[in-house]
Design goal:
CATH superfamily of the largest domain: P-loop containing nucleotide triphosphate hydrolases
Order of helices and strands: HHHEHEEE
Oligomer: single chain
Number of strands: 4
CATH architecture of the largest domain: 3-Layer(aba) Sandwich
Structural class: alpha+beta
Helix content: 25-40%
Low-confidence stretches: none
Strand order of the largest sheet: 1-2
Mean pLDDT: 86
Largest sheet: 2 strands, parallel
Number of helices: 4
Strand content: 15-25%
Radius of gyration: 16 Å
Length: 126
């Protein structure tokens, strides 16, 4: 996370503060000093989301954010992305094959062979 902040010109205490703010927001601040292999799959996903949020983007592209997670943890990640979208006013586009998470998104576009075959808006309260 520090590297991505350094690349956009944020360094030192300001970068450290931003990292800890995001890790705290995503409830993994207590794991800040751990190596990736010491984190659970869900914790790794949260750190990845924190990294994506580091420079306050208007949109996050999340490719298979629930991959390798069981359904409970996958739904937790999707709920977290919805929370991030709402609270930090960030659009999140999720690309996935995991239809089990559809209940956690605001709309669905089905693609087949590179063409849109169906679009639906879901009544998710924001």
């Amino acid at each position: 996370m520090l590297l991505s902040l350094n690349l956009i010109g944020i360094a030192g205490r300001q970068a450290d503060g931003r990292v800890m703010e995001l890790l705290d927001y995503l409830e993994v601040a207590d794991r800040a000093r751990n190596l990736p292999e010491q984190l659970s799959g869900g914790e790794r996903q949260r750190v990845a989301i924190a990294s994506a949020l580091a420079n306050s983007p208007a949109i996050i592209l999340a490719y298979e954010p629930t991959a390798a997670l069981d359904i409970e943890r996958g739904l937790g990640v999707m709920r977290l992305l919805r929370k991030v979208s709402k609270e930090l006013v960030t659009a999140i586009l999720v690309v996935t094959h995991d239809t089990r998470i559809i209940s956690e998104v605001g709309g669905v576009i089905h693609l087949m062979d590179g063409h849109m075959v169906e679009q639906s808006a879901l009544g998710i309260s924001r």
